[in-house]
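task queued by scheduler; priority normal; single chain, no ligands, no partner chains; default sampling; output format set to structure tokens
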Amino acid sequence: MELETIYQLFKECHGVTTDSRHCPEGSLFIALKGDHFNGNAFAAKALESGCRYAIVDEKEYVPQNDTRYILVDHALHTLQLLAHYHRLQLGIPVIGITGTNGKTTTKELLAAVLAEKYNLLFTEGNLNNHIGVPLTLLRLQPNHELAVIEMGASHPGDIKELVDIVEPNYGLITNVGKAHLEGFGSLEGVIRTKGELFDYLRTRGQATVFVDHDSPYLPNMATGLAIQYYGSGKENTVSGRVIGQSPYLSLEWQSAQEAVSYQINTRLIGEYNFCNVLAAITVGTFFRVEPEKINHALQAYTPRNNRSQLQQTADNLLIIDAYNANPTSMKASIGNFYRMQAEQKMLILGDMRELGAESAAEHQAIIDYLESCRFTDVILVGSQFAATRHTYLTYPDAPALITALQQQKPQGKTILIKGSNGIKLSSIVDYL
């Protein structure tokens, strides 16, 4: 079936789903496949549960003369083509965001700021891969005025694949650092892959990008593009400085177009969020959101999903950053915790995943950094940290730590919880 025909059927539907357990009435079901599932086998269930049509790519699942089934060569490819076609039909300006760390937080800060003025679509959660991005684009409606699309990557070419679907008008790379080294091979591989966003934007001719001027890499990566700089220097489009972090980040900022400066008290933990906040301010300024509305949005934003959350329990004050961890973000979190004014500091750190051949060296580097900061009250979770040279208390996994906490809970501590999501450190919060 031709893509235009499929698109007309899509327009008859009320949204898209890939989950047969969640089938809103009149939606379009797309049968995706994975290592351990075949969506084609659930197409009939999806139609029974309320879907209007089902896109499948295996003929044996299509009953004879049932026009509700749309047979294609490759369901995932069709999803991506459909999303791209839909994005082009509407023509709504799109801001593409990627980066090693902070892209989800920055995306949410941008969304908070831009929503003060525009009817906005933005990526929900971290649905930033080859499935999540097209599903987000298919949520675009004619009444949307802007879209903010987050794009993630773990291998070379991942961002190129996504920008070819999204065709963004603007771009922002939060930073580049050591993450997913197993897939990228090196920091240089990370830089090349994240830079695929800017590479695409160069083909659009003088597309605007938003760049952290303090980054050692990003200004060079943005050569040949129209740049809105942000950073600590007054020469930037938006400049700023940290004025407090006890424990929440406070900052002062100023636009190069105005003489007046503004102060913001955020609900974000960590000086490493300074550049994320400046990025949101710079994008908001570019799109003519009033400074007062920018400040309101940023001061009202509260992080979720175990990203730099502050939580007071009956016994301890927790800083929860247990969604993601790589050498760059781990060192930044530890350094921020070191500088924070707090009594009885304690760290619970989990393994960093997907570092490949560099894993042992990078975990040892974190141990060395902990020792240079003279932290003594440290708990390590996971086999990678256990294999390092250290004198800290170690547990093989989160359940083992929970058992220990049930027997002896810390009291009166300020505790940093940081690790890759796969280590499941978020599960220990209820025991602290």
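post-processing summary
- Residues 3-75 form a domain with the Udp-n-acetylmuramoylalanyl-d-glutamate--2,6- Diaminopimelate Ligase; Chain: A, domain 1 fold (CATH 3.40.1390.10).
- The two ends are 56 Å apart (CA to CA).
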